[in-house]
Description:
- By secondary structure, this protein is an alpha+beta fold.
- It has one domain.
- Helices cover 18% and strands 32% of the residues.
- The chain has a two-stranded antiparallel ribbon. It has a two-stranded antiparallel ribbon with strand order 3-6. The chain has a two-stranded antiparallel ribbon with strand order 4-5.
- The relative contact order is 0.24.
- It binds zinc ion (2 copies).
Amino acid sequence: xxxxxxxxxxxxxxxxxxxxxxxxxxxxxxxxxxxxxxxxxxxxxxxxxxxxxxxxxxxxxxxxxxxx
Length: 68
Ligand SMILES: [Zn+2]
Ligand SMILES: [Zn+2]
């Protein structure tokens, strides 16, 4: 699989990750990594797990999430 964002720029770069949101393949240059806090439902409500997970998105989805 090649990076989808690179294909739109007429380049072909092997994808290093898959966008968590849209499923497009993305190279290291187009990947945006962000920590994601996980929640666990327990008997009395929700608790946050101490360590964040990793969440990788493409440039398009990253911009879409950052813009208000
Ligand atoms: Zn790329
Ligand atoms: Zn995406």
